[in-house]
Design a protein that fits this description.
Layout lengths: L11 H22 L4 H27 L8 H17 L6 H29 L2 H11 L20
Helix pairs in contact: 1-2, 1-4, 2-3, 3-4
Amino acid sequence: MPKPIKRHSSLQPLSRDHHHGLLFCWKIRAGIKRHIEIERLKNHIIWFWNTHLIAHFSEEEEVVFPILEADHPLVQKALEDHKQLKSLFNADSFSAHSLDELQRKLEEHIRFEERILFNEIQEQASPEQLKLVETHNESGGEEGEYEDDYWTWDKGN
């Protein structure tokens, strides 16, 4: 069994965001499986984008990714993922298929950042760079929970 990844304390808030992102993906999958109305799922997607991902992507792009060179292939992949995810989250319309694609792409991206990109950043970062990330994290806050818990099995549609 692989050894658990020890995340540097300055990156832990972003890893917690990633955990919330994986829960979001699970909720979307549960909603699709339960045949929840697309409009309800769309509302959750819009809320999650506005409440969580815009700020998260911005922090990564402005503070974390610059630890590596701009042309670093892992940074380039992460930026391309962000671009694709932004497009998926801001689509004009959604279907069960597009929602499934969105949650799969987000989960794949989160796992890439956690398993590969953040490890490289931890290895390459100077103490000053990690302190900058930590300082940036101190300005963040909790965004709250989404109010429509359509993913729970004991609730009606």
